[in-house]
Amino acid sequence: MNLHEYQARALLKAAGIPVPDGDVATTPAEVEAIARRIGGRVVVKAQVHAGGRGKAGGVKLAATPAEARAHAEKILGMSIKGLTVQKVLVVPAADIASESYVGVIVDRASQRPVFMVSPAGGIDIEEVAAKTPEKIMKLAVDPRYGVLPHQAMRLAFFLYKDLGQVRSAATIMQRLYTAFIQAGGSLAEINPLVTTRDGQVVALDAKISVDDNELERRENIAALRDATAENPAEVKAREANLSYIKLDGAVGCCVNGAGLAMATMDLVKFYGGEPANFLDIGGSSNPEKVVAALEIITSDPNVKCILFNIFGGITRCDDVANGIVAATSRAKLKVPIVIRLTGTNEQLAVDILKRAGFSALTDMDEAVKQAVRLAGRAA
Amino acid sequence: MSIFIGHDTRLVVQGITGRDGSFHTRQMTEYGTRVVAGVTPGKGGQRFEQEVPIFDTVAEAVQATAANTAVIYVPSRFAADAVYEAADAGVRLVVCITEGVPVLDMTRIMPYLTERGVRLIGPNCPGAISPGRAKVGIIPGGICREGRIGVVSRSGTLTYEIIHQLSQAGLGQSTCIGIGGDPIIGTNFIDCLAAFEADPDTTAIVMIGEIGGTDEQQAADYARERVRKPIVGFIAGQTAPPGRRMGHAGAIISGASGTAAEKIAAFERAGIGVMKRPADVVQLLAERRITA
Asked: What is the CA angle B99-B105-B110, rounded to 5?
């Protein structure tokens, strides 16, 4: 789960990291009031879960409260990468002397939290890593001890010469690590960490991504989820305990297991079609889950054919068949459906489907080929 | 022979009285696995289906039954501690089926296990099966067949699909292992490649990867240097969009890294036969003169 910038800022502030004044708003009038309170030049920043906000026109500098309001009128409601901007953050325009990057991620290869810092801040860190790797210092943290003071100092010396700034940055890094652990983060970054003209070290922009597996034990973090900032079908899927990602193709896929779901999408493409979605109904699926899955797939107007691919293990094929029959008796399908199932209780499932007027295949390639052909014909 | 599990496996089931634990304990016993003990705190002294003794702690279970392998079916909020408990009790192998273990917990679990010389398979995995010998986890026994192909995979049902293709073509398996779909896992591809290479009863290896991370790329480099047995591989997620978690916590393309294309290229550089679709597995093995 990604947090909004304003939420990440609040977590850093709570951990004792200096962040500039600022507030979040949902209306132009609020933006004007915040800008007036802050005084001077402000920046109005769209709060959406998408990179490239600046390029999309979602980040604007304003000299006066009236100008801030005018920017907010344009930014609120605008669409950035398909997501509608509902909130903006208003912060003072900083007087920046230098920008650097500080981040901590869970590194898969070393199986540890790893700090990455770079004096080349304010830009895409992956680009820095690819083009000028010598401008990045990495440090793996032993999670049993956390980031030690001398480790934080070493990272900070890579960024600054002035000892006062080095000490400030080292403290910020230790606090960032604490905030990262407390949030159950998979990533926490300050980009940029700036020095101001008067020598202060301040976190100007913050990003925190939380490991979804942490949410059960961190109610305060789970409460930060902003469902209005997500695709409605994906929200519905999550509530039904399904994993769904919308794509742009015409073959709606419903599969048990994430790996098989990806392989099914790939096979759709292999046979010349395009998948409409990724959808994993999970392991021990009951008929209700299948009903919810069908509702989500059929709500996508691009779907021209529905493809079920079920390999029964813990998932029982008869449960899936019952779900298909229940869903289609409630709301008649407007597009053709191709069903492939094999494994646990396969014969029971075939009988259930036959009685309801459906046919079923047992071969994955055959099913995908048929679905691609049907989707193409409808288009 | 087989790898990690076999005739000498003596299994303790953590969470044996739970919904998943009891169901799969029955399946494992029916398959012929020696399930010597179960653990559910508060139910020590009882028996599972009049047969398997239940203990309050894994330590007692290991002491009383000489269990050497633990399998975990407990809910996610108890799973990390269940791994520590199994390691402390002295088993040599822990298989964690449970999904939803926080990745930060895994960063602490891994050094703990390494220091104690304990192997972990998973979490968030279907476990392992050595056909005809033992099954630890949830891989359906019915689709497997005794034989000489080693199968290792980050997926569950996709693995079943490929095992099914192998078995139908008469290609049995020495051991099939699902290593799990999380970003940090106990046993990776390289561990399995090394074990299959050393196993005299394995003649060829099937490797099923997916988008996210660099485990497959590193395994390909390792295979080129150190594995002489033929390998064929598949990568799921060629059509996956970047930045989105595809069901598995670890199946995510971060920026430009972890794509199917770079993994397939690494396989090709290492001489691994790349399946374009799961059904290609039999043909690719036949091209390497592996027919049974």
From this structure: 100
- Best B103, B125, B187 member to test A by mutation, with max A CBs in 10 Å, is B103
In this prediction the ipTM stands at: 0.94
Q: Residue A27's closest CA among A91, A90, A92, A80?
A: A90
pTM over 0.80: yes
CA distance A136 to chain B (A): 17
Three-state SS sequence of B179-192: CCCCCCCCCCHHHH
A231-378 CATH: 3.40.50.261
- Give the model confidence (pLDDT) of A224-265 as tens digits: 999 888 888 888 998 898 999 999 999 999 999 999 999 999
In this predicted model, what pLDDT tens digit does every residue of A338-373 receive, in sequence order? 999 998 889 999 999 999 999 999 999 999 999 999
Q: Which residues of B touch A278 (CB under 8 A)?
A: 240, 244, 246-247
Any idea what the Cα angle at residue A126 is, between residues A123 and A132, rounded to 5°? 85
Q: Which positions 300-319 of A are in contact with B (Cβ < 8 Å)?
A: 311-315
> Looking at domain B11-121, which CATH architecture does it have?
3-Layer(aba) Sandwich (3.40)
Rounded Cα gap, residues B249 and B104, in angstroms: 13
CA pair distance B37, B65, nearest whole angstrom: 7
Which of A143, A245, A257 is the closest to B158 by Cβ? A257
Q: Chain-centre distance of CA A17, in angstroms?
A: 25
